[in-house]
């Protein structure tokens, strides 16, 4: 993926196209060449000149005031996550050179905690690269192996897609979280590598990436269709690891006393056939 020099403009344009005239009380008239609001309509509703808003979208003005941003955010109906992301796009420092890729190592204490858990648990970075996982995680899905990438599996691996009963919703969530986690830090080599690969390999990824949706991941149930135990509902918690840069401990746990707890116990105790085994550094498309 070619690095964009105008992330602010891309974001404003995508969010403008997601808002209909009806949503902001503008009557429909004439033929619209693009979906959503026109630039001059956003400018009018936000109380700025059309020329000034055009400069913002084209990257000619990168220092709008907070008042202007708040007005535009109100017109574009940005929630807290989207507005926080907008602020990172205008406040990001310029970068004179591309940074080298840096792989962070999980702290020893976090690794010990993960290994001690009876529930599936693994450590991931902000790009959903898996840095470590326990036995219960591997029993749940062999794709949760150190060296794998959940985002890549979701968009490219048919077996991983079949595991998720709500695959479309899950992919939307992951892409929105990646946008939120990365912000304006688009010079990161891992970001360029991952988004470039998925842009070439997946039409679904390209569609979601163009929306510029932003969303923080929060604890939420996930619906799985496991090949060994069938339908399985687990709670997914992501816990920040102190002293690290964006590393998270992810834990899948069932509600106590449910059939989901019984199924997870079966996966953890039985020797079941798996699709793959061992660490991964890359997976074929």
In short, what is this structure?
It is built from 13 helices and five strands. The chain is α+β, with helices and mostly antiparallel strands. It starts with 6 loop residues before the first helix and ends in a 16-residue tail after the last helix.
Note down, in words, how this protein is organized.
It is elongated and about 65 Å long. Mean pLDDT is 86; it is low at 94-98, 271-278 and 281-285. It has helices at 7-17, 39-46, 50-57, 66-75, 80-91, 108-116, 135-140, 150-156, 158-163, 167-182, 189-201, 203-209, 259-269, and strands at residues 121-124, 130-133, 220-226, 230-240, 248-253. The longest helix is centred in the middle third of the chain and has 16 residues, at 167-182. The relative contact order is 0.13. By secondary structure, it is an alpha+beta fold. It starts with 6 loop residues before the first helix and ends in a 16-residue tail after the last helix. The protein has a five-stranded antiparallel β-sheet with strand order 2-1-5-4-3. Helix 2 packs across helix 3 (50-57) and helix 2 (39-46) packs across helix 4 (66-75). A hairpin with a 7-residue loop joins strand 4 (230-240) and strand 5. It folds into two domains: 7-91, 434 Repressor (Amino-terminal Domain) (Orthogonal Bundle); 108-269, Beta-Lactamase (2-Layer Sandwich), CATH 3.30.450.
Beta-strand content bin: 5-15%
The N- to C-terminal Cα distance equals 17 Å
* Assembly state (oligomeric): single chain
Individual helix count: 13
Which architecture of the largest domain would the CATH scheme give at its second level? 2-Layer Sandwich
Average of the residue pLDDT scores: 86
- Spell the H/E element sequence: HHHHHHEEHHHHHHEEEH
Q: In total, how many domains does the architecture comprise?
A: 2
| Number of distinct beta strands | 5
What share of the residues lie within helices?
40-55%
Q: What fold name goes in the CATH topology slot of the largest domain?
A: Beta-Lactamase
Q: What ranges have pLDDT less than 50 throughout 5 or more consecutive residues?
A: 94-98, 271-278, 281-285
CATH class of the largest domain: Alpha Beta
Query: Biggest sheet: strands side by side, in what order?
Result: 2-1-5-4-3
Indicate the radius of gyration in whole angstroms: 21 Å
Outline the biggest β-sheet.
Answer: 5 strands, antiparallel
């Amino acid at each position: 993926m070619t690095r964009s020099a105008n992330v602010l403009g891309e974001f404003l344009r995508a969010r403008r196209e997601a808002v209909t005239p009806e949503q902001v009380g503008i009557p429909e008239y004439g033929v619209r060449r693009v979906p959503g609001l026109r630039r001059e309509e956003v400018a009018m509703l936000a109380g700025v000149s059309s020329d000034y808003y055009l400069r913002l979208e084209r990257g000619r003005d990168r220092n709008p005031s907070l008042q202007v941003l708040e007005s535009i955010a109100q017109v574009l109906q940005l929630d807290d996550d989207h507005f926080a992301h907008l602020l990172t796009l205008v406040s990001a420092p310029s970068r004179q050179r591309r940074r080298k890729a840096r792989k962070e190592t999980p702290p020893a204490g976090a690794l010990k905690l993960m290994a001690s858990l009876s529930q599936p648990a693994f450590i991931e970075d902000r790009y959903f690269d898996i840095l470590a996982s326990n036995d219960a995680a591997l029993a749940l899905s062999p794709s949760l192996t150190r060296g794998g990438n959940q985002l890549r599996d979701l968009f490219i691996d048919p077996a991983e897609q079949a595991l998720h009963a709500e695959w479309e919703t899950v992919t939307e969530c992951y892409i929105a979280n990646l946008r939120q986690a990365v912000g304006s830090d688009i010079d990161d080599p891992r970001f360029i590598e991952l988004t470039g690969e998925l842009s070439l390999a997946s039409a679904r990824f390209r569609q979601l990436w163009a929306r510029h949706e932003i969303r923080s991941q929060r604890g939420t149930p996930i619906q799985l269709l496991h090949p060994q135990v069938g339908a399985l509902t687990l709670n997914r918690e992501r816990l920040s690891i102190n002293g690290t840069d964006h590393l998270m401990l992810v834990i899948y746990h069932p509600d106590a006393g449910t059939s989901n707890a019984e199924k997870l116990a079966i996966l953890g105790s039985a020797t079941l056939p798996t699709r793959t085994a061992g660490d991964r550094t890359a997976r074929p498309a």
